[in-house]
Amino acid sequence: MQNQLSFVYTRYFSTLQKVALTTLRVLENRILPSAITFAHEWNDDSPVSVAPPLFVPRIAPNDGFTAVILTHYNVHSTFNHIRLLAKVPSLSKIIIVWNGDERKPPPESEWPHISRPVQVIQMKDTLVTNRYIVFREISTEAVLSINDNPINCTPEQIEFGYQIWREHPASFVGYFTNAVSCVSTFGPTPKSLWSYLFAEAFVGSGFYHKYYGHLFHNWLSPELRNYINLQGMCEDIAMNVLIMSLTGSYPIKLVPRNAVSPRCSNDRSNPTVLNSTVSSCIGDFFSLSGLNYSLSQRYLDAVVYQYIPLFMDNKS
């Protein structure tokens, strides 16, 4: 208790400057709910993170989002994603990243016809880091990144995620994938450090500001990107870690109640493969990049956002 009191006094009240900054921080939390500081943050003795200069506390404009789907020739899953996204009100457009030139994408007549534009971009090289390229076709600030793994979300939950991102544009707002659902139902609660970090960092599909796509390809070292492509996975973990290391902001995880599935249909969703590969990825990320991993997290239940219409009786 004495050590904690000493920390609080030193951090917030030891000088007039610190008192003034603490007061301003409290006022900011009252005026801007998206900038709220939680109790454990006030009492955390880790160094205070500085928000990135390109993100002022604000609500991002409601100009919709661009969905970027990285597909490894998985036409069935990609088509399902398109049909799902077509029902999301804030969707602006869909970009399909056809990852590789070994196979051609289906002809235009076979793609689902929806009311928003769908553009297919075929890549020359099969690289998982193609997922975070900032294509010139991305005209919105918000990007929803998806691969061709199943996502257990409803249109309402995706819309909810976008609205949450608008309040926290500097953060990564993500969904647990089917792969993580498999891990969560595979055996007892993980006790190892790597399993813990894996559960912390891995949010496969999610919203982020397109600026982070530039940083992913221009700020991360070529060695780290080459390592990710060699693994053939872990690119989403790298994006999570990049954003959290740069901003110190919380990853916001949307956890649909229907997300847990005991079955895994492919190797990328196999819990044994994921646990070993991702553990290796996380350890190598920090040795190759020097990024700092120190964070907390927030969970939001997307189910509560479901719209329930009110029916009025017009009988007089």
From TrEMBL:
InterPro entries registered for this protein in UniProt: Exostosin (IPR004263), GT64_dom (IPR015338), Nucleotide-diphossugar_trans (IPR029044)
Q: Which family does it belong to?
A: Belongs to the glycosyltransferase 47 family.
What's the superkingdom here? Eukaryota
Start and end of every Glycosyl transferase domain? 65-290
Q: GO molecular-function annotation terms? A: transferase activity
Q: Where in the cell is it found?
A: Endoplasmic reticulum membrane
Q: Which organism is it from?
A: Gnathostoma spinigerum
Record protein name field: Glycosyl transferase 64 domain-containing protein
Among PANTHER family, the record links this protein to: ACETYLGLUCOSAMINYLTRANSFERASE (PTHR48261), EXOSTOSIN GLYCOSYLTRANSFERASE 2 (PTHR48261:SF5)
Q: Where are its TM segments located? A: none
Keywords, A to Z, come to: Disulfide bond, Membrane, Transferase
- List the GO terms this entry assigns under cellular component, sorted alphabetically: endoplasmic reticulum membrane
Q: Which GO terms describe its biological process?
A: carbohydrate derivative metabolic process
Q: Please give, as recorded in its UniProt entry, the membrane topology of this protein.
A: Single-pass type II membrane protein
Keyword Cytoplasm among record annotations: no
Q: Which Pfam families match?
A: Glyco_transf_64
User: Is the Disulfide bond keyword given for this protein?
Assistant: yes
